[in-house]
Amino acid sequence: MTDKLVYLDHNATTPLHPEVMQTLKEAMEIFGNPSSMHSFGRIARQQVEQARANVASLLGALPEEIVFVGSGSEGNNTVLSILSCPSKCCAYGEIHGPDIVTTAIEHPCVLDTTRCLQDRGAHVAFIGVDQYGKINFDALDKALTKKIGVVSVMTANNEIGTLQDIKRIAALCHERGALFHTDAVQAFGKIPMNVRDLDIDFLTLSGHKIYGPKGIGALYVRRKAPFLPLIHGGHQERGLRGGTESVPLIVGIGKAAEIARKYLPGYHAKVRLLRDWLERGILDSIPDTELNGHPTQRLSNTTNITFRGLESEALLLLLDQEGICASTGSACLADSDEPSHVLQAMKPDGNSLRQMIRFSLGLSNENSEVQESVALVRKCVAMLAS
Ligand SMILES: Cc1ncc(COP(=O)(O)O)c(C=O)c1O
Fold first, then answer.
1. Among 1.10.1370.40, 3.30.830.10, 3.30.930.10, 3.40.640.10, what is the CATH number of 18-259?
2. Whose CA is nearest to atom 8 of ligand 1?
3. What are the pLDDT digits (tens) for 190-217?
4. pTM above the 0.85 mark?
5. Which one, of 265, 9, 42, lies nearest residue 158 by Cα?
């Protein structure tokens, strides 16, 4: 193991921004319950509302359209579960049918939730994707029948970075009377997103992908969109999510959103330059390598590369020994033997589905790290191939 580690796994999680770290330390002392009427409560409430305004501002939303939740996974579970209540026990069951339309390449927290709802009687359509991970628009068009309750399509894929045309998808959903949700956990803070311009009904985001803390996320819920809490038991978050708010984590995600607003205009240029350098360095100098994902419509920090003939795990371990921290795809499935469901959907006939590595860069990566990484990847591949 080398002393110097190069972190190329920002889609799994990002390091805390130093200013967020400082804010979190200070926020740990705000112990008041935001629901309390007294001064301690009011101080906590004021901090929570400032954080809400920061998150809303990055999305072009109103503060009252933001609901803090415990994670991106909780946000996705909430939207899918409340809008597809198969027993029609909820207030909106009569308006919107139980069906969900989603894609084959969503994050496991969407796919597993929809499968669970399927077991309880919901009808779910999984839309396929092309070889670049772009959704099949014709299939979506056909799936949008009258019965659809909610359509959920991720803005950016966590494994390959491919971006979907969210504005076009939202427009089609609305034309057919369906509500539209997007899992923007990977996109928020990496690309500019305006919920009004995109005409989104629900959006999920997460703190730890934007240099903020783990265990905190937020849902954008368009004003007047149907919504019910998944977690009952309190009037917190205007009755939309029970449980005493974690003030420090909320303050932390608010600070991270404030910082993201400042770095976002320069993010693409900075990170893409390094990503492209890494990508080209690997693809041009190592035989039997291939890019997975869309060549251009992709997050600027993500590159997913197949190393034909080399098992991902073996290469990852070797890279780790050399100080390069990357991954095979979703951190949630890191201990699974299953090939990536994303690559399976993109390449149904593919035979090298367990031979890829995802490198995801971030703001703190430097030129020298990328240069070093290309050389080390080359070295590890040569070792495994020999
Ligand atoms: C696309 C996507 N959605 C949802 C999640 C889950 O977010 P969280 O880790 O906050 O539960 C992740 C995390 O990797 C993700 O990449």
1. 3.40.640.10
2. 72
3. 999 999 999 999 999 999 999 999 999 9
4. yes
5. 9
